[in-house]
Amino acid sequence: MPEEPCQCIDCQRFYREHDRLIREFPTLRQQQELNWAALQAFRTLSGRVLEDLQKQCGETKQETQKSLPDNGSDPDSGDSLQQVIADLENINAHLFSVEALMERIFDVKVPEEIEQKFRELAGELAPDPLNVDRLRLNRLLHQTPDLPDKN
Ligand SMILES: [Zn+2]
How far apart are CA 39 and CA 20, in angstroms? Predict the structure, then answer.
């Protein structure tokens, strides 16, 4: 028996987003540009946050060294900040690797007739849910012979 795809709210949001990205970026070129921009945006933002946290962490260390050991500063806050910084450094390292891999994918160019094929199949994979023809077709498909139209 084929397994039904999960229909929880998170999965539904994923399917919608997935289909939208196919519908709105239906060529190889557009997918390349979209994913490159998304990767760069991710790197820029998380890199900037990391930089800020590292600065903040440096300042916290200086303050701790200056102050007395028992003046109420939370010893855990430094540790959890260290952990976040380590996690973000990890993410950035992975994003860097992904970028190196993506560069190869993005070197490829295909002729216009192949881009046309991309467009055609994108239309099949992710048809516009609000498209009039699509709505009409859906209505037809849901009128099964043993279930006559109520109108
Ligand atoms: Zn789910």
Answer: 18
Tokens linked to 102: 């993506």
Q: Which token pair is 89?
A: 């450094």
Give the model's confidence band at 21: pLDDT under 50 very low, under 70 low, under 90 confident, else very high.
Answer: very high
Dist CA 29 CA 115 (whole Å): 8
- The separation between CA 43 and the C-alpha centre of its own chain, rounded to angstroms, equals 13
Pair 85, 54: CB distance under 8 Å: yes
**Cβ neighbours around 17 below 10 Å, total:** 10
Query: How many Cβ atoms are within 10 Å of 26's Cβ, its own excluded?
Result: 20
Q: How far is the CA of 13 from the centre of ligand 1 (A)?
A: 9
Q: Which long-range contacts (CB under 8 A, 24 or more apart) does 9-16 make?
A: none
Output Rg (C-alpha) for the chain, integer angstroms: 25
pLDDT tens-place string over residues 107-138: 899 999 999 999 999 999 998 877 766 666 66
Q: Which of 76, 16, 84 is nearest to 49 (CA)?
A: 84
Q: Kindly report the length of the chain.
A: 151
Beta-carbon neighbours within 5 Å of ion ligand 1: 6, 8, 11
CA of 7 to the centre of ligand 1 (A): 5
